[in-house]
Structure formats: structure tokens, C-alpha cells
Amino acid sequence: MLLRRVVLALGASALVLTSVACTQEARPEPTPTPKPTTTSTPEKPRVVTFGAYGTAKEVDAMRSVVESFNASTTTRQVELVTWPDHETALREITAGKAPDVFLTSRIDLGQLIDAEALRPVSLLLDERGVDFGDRYARGAVDAFAYGDELQCMAYSVSPMVLYYNDAIIDFDRMERRGVTVPQRVDRWRFSEFAAAAEFASRRGNVRGVWIDPTLEGLAPFVQSAGGDVFDDDVQPTTTTFSEDDSREALSQALEVLRDPTLTPTPAQLRRSTPLELFKNGRLAMMAGHRNLVPELRATPGLSFDVTAMPAIDGQATVGDVSGLCISAESEVVGDAADFIAYAVSDAAVETVTRTGYIVPANTHVAASPAFLDERQQPEHAGVFNASIRYMEVPPFIEDRDRLLDVLTPLLEQLVTSPGTLDLEVALEEIDAASRTVLSPEEAQE
Q1: CATH of the domain at 128
Q2: Shared domain check, 376 and 239
Q3: For a pLDDT cut of 70, what percent of the chain falls above it?
Q4: 244 and 124 fall within a common domain
Q5: Which partner for 350 in 140, 265, 370, 437 could form a disulfide, CB atoms 3.0-4.6 Å apart?
Q6: Chain center to CA of 267
Q7: Distance between CA atoms of 184 and 349, rounded to whole angstroms?
């Protein structure tokens, strides 16, 4: 009886447990309360402003570089700011209106440092793997070094070379007539240069040569003979045209540059610029920089080439370097450095190089078909690259424009005035005038 009660009790308990279990299994799951949905707004890309100047084609090429960079990133975007010319750019930058990154000339470096407008780039670019060694022209990079820091990254180089019309300066015809011809097409001695000028001037209204009567135009001849244009490379106080080496170099150069039978007449220069005379086949030789190439290529019927500036003793030339800088006021320094590292890369530099206007500081591109394009003039484009090794960049001069204003009339008289020239007196006058700008206190004494 007791056993039966236990069994019945256990059976009742099991029935209760089974009922509870079934009841729990049958109960529906509670419907979860939906969480409020939130839509995340994508972060706006950081903006980097980039200031540049140049011809329309150069600016278009820069714009292509900017667009290519922007296509590679969603976190930052570069906006191109353009200036009509180099002078406007310098005024804006020194007035505190600099973009984050900007293109500048090496001759402006002193003013930019004085204005505290720059943030040095050496460490920033080193962190981004930019190779300052073999990948970029050493002289161009060094030109932007100041105070143990690289202030800007070298972008392009502009050595002065000698352009010549190779239909007028025909070496085969010169040789047949017994005229001295250059031993090397890409490098002429001064005597070979003089012979070419005389040969070209025999042809009717054609003149042999024009060299601008400026500090820049005369400097290669002075330096080639071992002379100096200024007394100091860092803080010049005077020009040194009247010193022995400089005077002897100019005496030799002016035998050609002052010869009215070899140079354009005053009447020709009143009607046309030297560049127009060269394009029209009325001038055989002229000094200039790489930025002339696109215009000369576009001149119908013009056949031209380039050679190094004539050597009196050794090779020498002058020129400038363009660089990419970061503003001291930039709030996106890392992004600005990333853009410069991209802009000096092979692919980006090639884009601008193909316009024909620049000699790239990037040595890989400078040695590539993008620059040494044998299908286009000039045939010996490598002259530009070779001339960088002999190129001197002018020293920092705070009031450079005023110096040029003071000296240019005297230099024009030195080169173009008719009649007999007292060279020693003329050169002493030029040096004395330079001191009124470079060292006015000494000049007064």
C-alpha cells in the first residue's frame, strides 16, 4: 500500500514536471525591442592647398598631378591655387597668405626665411622614404639647404645654355669652307663660339649672336675664366667685375658681344625681340633656359639645338632651382609632406616634364625618354642635365630688384654702346654702383 502511494506520488510529480515543461516549450519568445538605427556621416577629407604658377600648360600639368593624388586617397584632398606669375606668388606668401604647399624659386629663399614662412622638409620627407642621394640632382637639393635643414624640396632646375639654329650653324658647310668647327657638339670653346658667330653673320641680314646684357647673361663668361661676379657667395657687398680675372674674361667676351657685325642692330632690336629674331631665322645663337623649348618647337620651319655656354677656360653657367615648400602656418603638415613626396615621384614629375618646360631635379626622369625625347628638338637635350654640374646659383640678395635696376643700364651700355669703350672705367663704375645697394654704408664712406 505504501509502495503504491510512492509510485502514485512519483507519477503525479512526473506529470506536473512534464506539464510545466510542455507549457514552457509552448510559450512564444518575447519580441525583441528594435534598437534605434544611427547613420554614420563619413568624415570630410582634410584639405591641403597647393600654390603654383607658370604657363597655362605647366599649370594644367600640375593640375593633373593634383587630380592623380586626390584619386588615390579619400582622407585628404589637394586644392590647386594658382598665381599669374612668380612675383605675385612671392608677395602673397611673404604677406602671410601662403597655401600649405607652394612652388618657389631658389632666389626667393632668403626672403622666405626672413619672413619665417617655411617649415623645413628634410625630416618629413626622410620619414616618407624620399631618397635625397642619387635620385635627385645633388646641386639642386643643396641649393635649398639653409641652417643644417632642407627648407624646400628641389623640383626643377634651370641652367642657362646656348640655343643655336642648326640650319644656319651648319658644321659640314663650315668645315668645307675651312671655318673652325666645335670638337664636341655639346660643348664649345669660346674660339669655336666666335667662329660660329662670324660664319652665321655672313648671310645677308642674319646676325650671329645675342647675349642679354645682364648679370645673368655675362656671369657664365666671367666664371668660365675663373672670375667671380660677387665678392662673397653668402653675403655679397659688391660685384667684382673690375678685378683682374673678371676684367680679362669680359674683355675677351666683349670682342664678340660688342661687335656690331655679329650682333643684332639697334633697328632690328626696335622691331623685334632677340627671341623673335631667333624664331624668324634672323639670329643664329642666343642664351636661354629650358622654358623656351615649347615655343621654339611650335615655330614652323625652325630647326634648333642646344650646347653648353661657351668655355673661355672651364665650363660654367648660371641658373635657378624651383622647389616645393611647406608653409610654417600649415595645420596639415603631414598631409602636405605626403603630397610633396608624391609630387617629386617619377610618375608625377614625368607628367610635368612632358610639357617641355622644365629640367626635372629627379635624375631618373631627367635621364628618361620623358625628357630626352629623340623624336623632338633639341637633339642634344642632355646638355641641360650636364650643365647642372657647372651651374652656379646667385647668392641671397635682399634687394635684388633694386640691384638689377641700378646695374642694368650700366651693363647695357657696356655691351651695346657704340664707339670705343674704356673697359676698366666702365667696370669700376658698375662695381661702385652695386655697392650702393649691397653695402650702402661703405659706399657712402
Answers
A1: 3.40.190.10
A2: no
A3: 90
A4: no
A5: 370
A6: 35
A7: 30
